[in-house]
Write a structure and sequence with these properties.
Shape: globular
CATH superfamily: P-loop containing nucleotide triphosphate hydrolases
CATH architecture: 3-Layer(aba) Sandwich
CATH topology: Rossmann fold
Structural class: alpha/beta
Strand content: 15-25%
Distance between the termini: 41 Å
Low-confidence stretches: none
Helix content: 40-55%
Number of strands: 7
Number of domains: 1
Bound molecules: guanosine-5'-diphosphate, magnesium ion
Mean pLDDT: 95
Largest sheet: 7 strands, parallel
Length: about 220
C-alpha cells in the first residue's frame, strides 16, 4: 500500500516536472538543480559562481530550505533575483517538488534570464528522486564528508550530470583520500565530470565556470 502511494506521488511529480521542462524550454532558460548534504557548500559555491557569471549570464536563483531565509539573504547580495522556499510551510519536505519550483518560478521574471539555479534542500536522498524539470543536476560533495558517500548514496551520484568536490583548501588538514573518492564516483557514474574546487579560495573555479557557461550556451540553441 505504502509503495503504491509513493509511486503515485512520484508520477504526479513527474507530470508536473515535464510541464516545467516545457515552460523553461519556451523561456530558453537553463535550469540547474544543485544538491548536496547540509553544509557541503552549495550557497558558498553559488555566491562565487554568480559573481563570475555576471554580467555575461543573466541568472536567477530559487533556494529551498526547511526553515529560515539565511541562504536567500546571502545570495541576494550578488545582485540577482532570489526566491526562498521554506518547506516547513507545507509539511517540512526534505526536497523541492516540481509544483513548488513552478510556483517559485512564477514569482520571477524569466524573460531575460538565461540561467535559473535551484539550490535544493540539503539532503543526499530525497532530492535525487524528485524531478523538478531541470536540465542539469549537480551534486556537491565536500572533503569533510568521507570518501564513501558516493557508494552510500548511489542514486544521487547516478542522476547527476557533474560533481563538485568542494573545500579542497582543507585537504592538508584531513585524512581524506581524494583518489578513493574519485574512484568511488567513477564506480557509480563512470563518465561524470568532477570539478575539484574551493569556494573559500576559488581555486579550481575556472574549469567549472567554463563547463557551466557551455551548458547555458547549448540551451540557447536548443
Ligand atoms: N574551508 C572551507 N569552508 C567552506 C567552503 N565552502 C563552504 N564552506 C563553509 O561551509 C559551511 C557551509 O557552507 P554553505 O554554503 O552554507 O553550505 P550549504 O548548506 O551546502 O549551502 C559554511 O561555514 C561555509 O563557510 C570551502 O571551500 N572551504
Ligand atoms: Mg545553503
Amino acid at each position: 500500500m505504502e509503495v503504491k502511494l509513493v509511486k503515485k506521488v512520484l508520477s504526479v511529480n513527474d507530470t508536473m516536472a515535464q510541464q516545467n521542462r516545457q515552460f523553461f524550454l519556451e523561456k530558453k532558460v537553463l535550469v540547474l538543480n544543485m544538491m548536496s548534504s547540509p553544509g557541503a557548500g552549495k550557497t558558498a559555491i553559488l555566491e562565487k559562481t554568480i559573481k563570475r557569471l555576471l554580467p555575461e549570464i543573466k541568472t536567477a536563483v530559487i533556494v529551498g530550505d526547511i526553515c529560515t531565509t539565511n541562504d536567500a539573504d546571502r545570495l541576494i547580495k550578488t545582485g540577482v533575483p532570489v526566491v526562498q522556499i521554506c518547506t516547513d510551510q507545507f509539511g517540512g519536505d526534505c526536497h523541492l517538488a516540481a509544483h513548488v519550483v513552478r510556483n517559485a518560478a512564477s514569482d520571477l521574471n524569466l524573460d531575460h534570464v538565461q540561467l535559473l539555479i535551484v539550490e535544493n534542500v540539503g539532503n543526499l536522498v530525497c532530492p535525487a528522486e524528485f524531478d523538478i524539470g531541470e536540465d542539469v543536476r549537480i551534486v556537491v560533495l565536500s572533503v569533510t564528508e568521507g570518501e564513501d558517500k558516493p557508494l552510500k548514496y548511489p542514486l544521487m551520484f547516478r542522476v547527476c550530470d557533474a560533481a563538485l568536490l568542494n573545500k579542497t583548501d582543507l585537504l592538508p588538514y584531513l585524512d581524506f583520500d581524494k583518489e578513493t573518492v574519485l574512484k568511488n564516483i567513477r564506480q557509480i557514474h563512470p563518465d561524470m565530470p568532477v570539478f575539484e574546487l574551493s569556494a573559500k579560495t576559488e581555486e579550481g573555479f575556472s574549469d567549472w565556470i567554463e563547463w557551466l557557461k557551455n551548458e547555458v550556451e547549448k540551451k540557447r540553441y536548443e
